[in-house]
Amino acid sequence: MTPKLLKFCSFILLLTSGFVSAKQSGHFSNHLILAHRWPVSECTDWMQRNVSNACIIPPYRDWVIGGFWPYRYDVNKPLYCNRSMHASDKVLNEIKPSLLLNWPSIDKRTGNLSLWKDEYLAHGSCAYSLDNFNDTKKYFKGALSRLTKYNLTQILADRKIVPGAHYSINKILEAVKNSFNNPMEVGIKCIYHEATKGYI
Predict the structure, then answer these.
(1) Residue 176 falls within a domain, yes or no?
(2) Is residue 10 part of a domain?
(3) Where does the secretion signal sit in this chain (predicted)?
(4) What's the CATH code of the domain at 53?
């Protein structure tokens, strides 16, 4: 991938967490994956996939949650560990303002509630075996607290990396990696924008 036309991409952080017991560690590692996404990049990717796809882009320019997944070395990201487990509507309504701000859907057809319920069924059901995430509120609050803790907007701004300018992938990756005291695995996914012939 060329380094010269990079604006903002999506980040995946492999977070080492200290709340998996030895008993649980046979099923899940002590890692979680927190994906950050830049809504404009995600929307561009979504619309390029199909001309009928339509987006809702939040009015603010900030990183939002792209996913929060338990990680297992034997199957990587487990999915749908319990299809009978559903997110609590009551809890989703309680924390809706925070989710709208920090975990919005960009898909105009399905909307936010559908996104949150799908995420919980796919990933929250697999995080359920971890004490810190064994109900709807703990799962979503856990993701929200980590978005605040690993604030990419601030991390990048502190290193003079701001929206609208062009940066190399290496510069962005190094800025993020060097921001953490503990070793952190950082991944980056960029979207090729057909119209500008650059990565966003």
Answers:
(1) yes
(2) no
(3) 1-22
(4) 3.90.730.10
How many structural domains is the chain composed of?
Answer: 1
Distance between CA atoms of residues 86 and 97, nearest Å: 20
For the stretch 30-86, pLDDT in tens is 578 899 998 888 888 888 888 898 998 888 878 999 999 887 766 666 788 899 999
Within-domain flag for 182? yes
Strand order across the 185-189 sheet: 64-70, 31-37, 10-16, 185-189
What is the domain extent for residue 37? Answer: 26-190
Asked if the structure places residue 180 within a domain, the reply is yes
By C-alpha distance, which of 44, 36, 6 is closest to 153?
36
- Reported confidence tier of residue 187, pLDDT bands at 50, 70, 90: confident
Q: Closest by alpha carbon to 126, among 33, 28, 31?
A: 28
* Residue 7, burial from CB neighbour count under 10 angstroms (0-12, 13-18, 19+): buried
- What are 3-46's pLDDT values in tens digits? 333 445 666 655 544 333 333 444 555 578 899 998 888 888 88
